[in-house]
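TA notes, week 10

Several of you asked for a full example with nothing omitted. So below is the full record: structure tokens for the whole chain, then the designed sequence directly under it. When grading your own attempts, check the secondary structure regions first.
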């Protein structure tokens, strides 16, 4: 056993610190039912992904080179796992670990039932001479092989099939066959949790960016849902932040996403749209464009009209997105003037047995009520006082209750001020 093996407790702590959105996102994509488990010895304790270039610090801890470089370049002078001060910031390549990982990858790679090697499959995908039907047949094989990741067929990742499929999907030639695009995206999403998300930056190329927008505008619902998953991944990483900003500037994209959340008959499509809106709104520069294209109205309609079983998981995300969009000054008027705008937010203040979204709802009402008499009146008429009192008697967390008291105090002081002005 290597001296630099990370203990299980440390891995668990780091998992909790890792972004919750990414963990949930990967969980949704693992439709094959195979757990995304890599031996702890082979995982970088920062990224929790398979080592690509393991290096060891003076503390004996090993990290993936790009991850520890970013840590050190950010001004940190300690070892992320042990928190010991680094008296020497040099990094020594861990060739032994690299060798063990290579052996593990090779031992878990196999050909499919037709004995076609993964390398041969890649050549067929890349070849301009391959027919569309041949490529789709090959995609079926890749789909089959991906079901046993990461324990088997890990060369799908090593040979960067994820990047290969993205190249195929966003080439100008791909638009002629939506069936090919649908299947390629479906398989790429299965590979994505195991792949380097920086690969998505190929969309910064103008030609591929334009194809992305065309597919979102003219593609099938299936294609649009898959592209929403890509948007969610793009918004999750620092290395793809500039791409997220670029996509957020597109009027076409914002408009199409809003239309997705208006598909009341298709819960999966609505979910994909809400997740995409939430992802793009994570960057403040994108919010004005989303607001102009009707994102707020769409989210309010969702909160009012969706049945409880559908709203259970998505309502907090929809509420959080509305809160983020309220930094745009015009959004306050949109909410107030919407027939059910204030009511939708008030309903989110207290939900029996569920408190997810309560804090976002209260924060949103604080923003609206602090500057609008009309907003305060509507909130009171729509029952916000009762909702706040119920929340204060519930098992909600202390921070949410503090915000609730702030809102009650605001409403009471402004109510008294309005009465004095009336007199």
């Amino acid at each position: 056993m290597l001296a630099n093996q990370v203990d299980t407790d440390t891995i668990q702590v780091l998992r909790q610190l890792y972004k919750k959105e990414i963990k949930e996102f990967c969980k949704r994509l693992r439709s094959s039912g195979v757990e995304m488990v890599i031996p702890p010895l082979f995982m970088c304790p920062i990224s929790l992904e398979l080592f690509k270039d393991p290096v060891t610090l003076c503390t004996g801890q090993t990290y993936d080179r790009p991850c520890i470089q970013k840590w050190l370049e950010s001004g940190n002078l300690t070892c992320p796992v042990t928190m010991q001060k680094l008296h020497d910031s040099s990094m020594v390549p861990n060739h032994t670990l690299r060798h063990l990982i290579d052996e593990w990858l090779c031992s878990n790679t196999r050909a499919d039932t037709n004995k076609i090697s993964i390398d041969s499959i890649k050549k067929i995908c890349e070849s301009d001479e391959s027919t569309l039907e041949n490529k789709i047949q090959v995609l079926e094989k890749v789909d089959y092989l991906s079901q046993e990741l990461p324990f088997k067929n890990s060369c799908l990742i090593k040979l960067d099939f994820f990047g290969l499929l993205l190249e195929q999907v966003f080439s100008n030639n791909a638009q002629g066959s939506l069936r090919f695009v649908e299947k390629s995206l479906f398989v790429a999403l299965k590979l994505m949790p195991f792949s380097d998300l920086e690969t998505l930056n190929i969309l910064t190329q103008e030609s591929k960016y334009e194809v992305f927008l065309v597919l979102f505008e003219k593609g099938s619902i299936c294609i649009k849902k898959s592209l929403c998953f890509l948007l969610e991944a793009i918004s999750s990483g620092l290395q793809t932040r500039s791409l997220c900003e670029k996509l957020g500037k597109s009027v076409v994209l914002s408009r199409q996403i809003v239309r997705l959340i208006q598909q009341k008959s298709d819960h999966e499509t609505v979910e994909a749209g809400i997740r995409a809106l939430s992802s793009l709104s994570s960057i403040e520069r994108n919010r004005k464009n989303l607001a102009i294209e009707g994102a707020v109205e769409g989210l309010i309609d969702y909160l009012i009209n969706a049945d409880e079983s559908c709203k259970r998981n998505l309502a907090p995300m929809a509420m959080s997105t509305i809160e983020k969009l309220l930094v745009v000054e015009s959004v306050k008027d949109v909410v107030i003037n919407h027939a059910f705008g204030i009511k939708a937010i008030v309903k989110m203040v207290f939900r029996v047995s569920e408190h997810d979204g309560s804090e976002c709802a209260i924060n949103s009402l604080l923003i609206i009520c602090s500057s609008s008499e009309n907003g305060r009146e509507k909130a009171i008429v729509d029952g916000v006082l009762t909702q706040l009192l119920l929340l204060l008697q519930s098992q909600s967390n202390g921070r949410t209750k503090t915000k609730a008291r702030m809102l009650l105090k605001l409403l009471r002081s402004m109510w008294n001020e309005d009465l004095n002005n009336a007199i």
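The first helix runs from residue 8 to 17. Use that as a sanity check on your answer.
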